[in-house]
Amino acid sequence: MTDARPPAGGAATVGNVTEVAADGQPVTAAASRRGNAVPEPQVTTMFDSIAPVYDRMNTLMTAGLDGRWRRSAVRAARLSRGGSALDVACGTGKLTVALAGAVGPEGRVLGVDLSPAMLDQARLAFGELVGVEFRVGNALALPVADQSFDAATIAFGLRNLSSFEDGFREMARVVRSGGRVVCLELSVPRPRLAARVYEGTFRLMAPVVGTLFRRRTAYRYLPHSLDGFPAAEEIAATMRRVGLRDVSFRRLALGAVALHVGTVA
Ligand SMILES: C[S@@+](CC[C@H](N)C(=O)[O-])C[C@H]1O[C@@H](n2cnc3c(N)ncnc32)[C@H](O)[C@@H]1O
User: What atom of ligand 1 comes closest to residue 137's alpha carbon?
Assistant: First the structure.
């Protein structure tokens, strides 16, 4: 899918930022309240370009806390041995493999991502694991049947989608009744001062870390992908709108990250 869909529902765009994509083309890196305005091919190119260094940069930028957050996401999915999970926008497969640990070798876990290079990294690290598969696919048109998994997760992927609501709708579609949809994503802390410090640090750090790993252009995209990103309460409301029930969230890392969970009706 190559279309750059306008934000669903015509929501106002917050904070347009002209940016340069990995292919050198100028793009408007504005995230509306309901979706990311950067076209999918450019998002894919950007993640392809950072794939070899993504894990190391992530560890550096999160001070190594990302592993703990992903473990919280796995617990929230409430999987059993022999169960099944779909990891949407799985990237290099860190959460996918943690989910595989929860369902065991008799279970089944599929990681789906738009970026072939991110999936190459995932296969290199985890391709041999029993019950784990990685496939190229779009979060907005998942290549799997209705109600075919016990849980669907997305970690740090939602803010890249052109429609957050359509992303949740797809995840809800592929999970059986009573199963869970889990979203781990960056958020903006509530107290204004903390939010300012956090945003400033993130905006400053991403390009610095990007320079260290010689991926500066691509890493300028990441802080902008948070522009206008909905607050945790709004994400919860979006999940309810697609029919998920018992939606709740919890803030991690002083509110810099939010973990949302909903149950399929
Ligand atoms: C920040 S990475 C997160 C990767 C991984 N989930 C993790 O926890 O590290 C975001 C991922 O979303 C993927 N992505 C972006 N838009 C997508 C879409 N429409 N469908 C599937 N994957 C997408 C990117 O290719 C990238 O691998």
Answer: 21
